[in-house]
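Example 3.2
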Amino acid sequence: MKQIRTEDAVGHVICHDITRIIKDKEKGVAFKKGHVVRPEDIPELLSIGKEHLYVWEKNENMLHEDEAAVILAAACQNEGMRLGGPKEGKIEIFAERDGLFVVDTKRLLAINSIDQMMIATRSSMQYVRAGDKLAGTRIIPLVIEKEKMKAVSAIANEDAPILEIRPVLRKKAGVVTTGGEVYHGRIQDTFTPVIEEKLHAYGAAMEQHITAPDEKDQIREAIAGMRGAGVDLVVCTGGMSVDPDDLTPAAIRDSGARIVTYGAPVLPGAMFLLGYFEDGMPVLGLPGCVMYAKATIFDMILPRVLADVPVTRAEIAALGNGGLCLNCPVCHYPNCAYGKGNF
């Protein structure tokens, strides 16, 4: 930092806020810390009594906070995103389309581990809508070494930003409703409408529906029929507990699916099943809680499945951290800690 004549300050960065006071009319910040002095600013600065300014010394090896913020934003911005700013060294990133928000958390950590800079994002693997805020970036000081920003660009790579919005690709669902009480018409099927509503929220739809009794072979055949009907994913409801007559998990296994998990550290949703067929088609077994609970593991996993982002056993296990729903009087999911895990 150095003191220079105001007339010589064009192109320099002001180190502190400069206040303008007009008796009985105005008192406020005329020039904010970090402002780059322009030729047209000189008369105004002189008029408020600033014949000298404290500025950062010009240095070809340093970047202004706005310039650095542009580099940080470029490391983040991908297709379907827009930038706001820079404003006081900060750039915010917004979604321009709906989709699954995916953060490369390893590279995000690498950038945030570089001294004097930050990128803050919303949680990865959350479904976002056009207009949603995704991230904010800035450096901490007014100026920063170019070498540090080169390190950011090296981590990010211009061809692979660390943020992504993935569109829904699996839009046609087949639903297999199991249970003799529904199959024989003893009770009304209140589960399937819930599935339809949740699919619709992401632009997907139930294209096929079969009701099967509590018979393993018939459930397996129903799943096979769904696959032959050309759906993008199969959802099975009912018969997911460990009771002897709950045969849906065994039928899914016998259908040829590779089971990723039967059981999850999430409440509600512990009896959840996820598997994949050889062609990548997912199959889900949903516990009864999905029918009546506001938010369950199905809400956590469905956006990923629809965006065709594979889910691993380790990622399911990570949901235990934050996997307990607190049953708030007013549900704010997904704007809460429930289900954030360590994706």
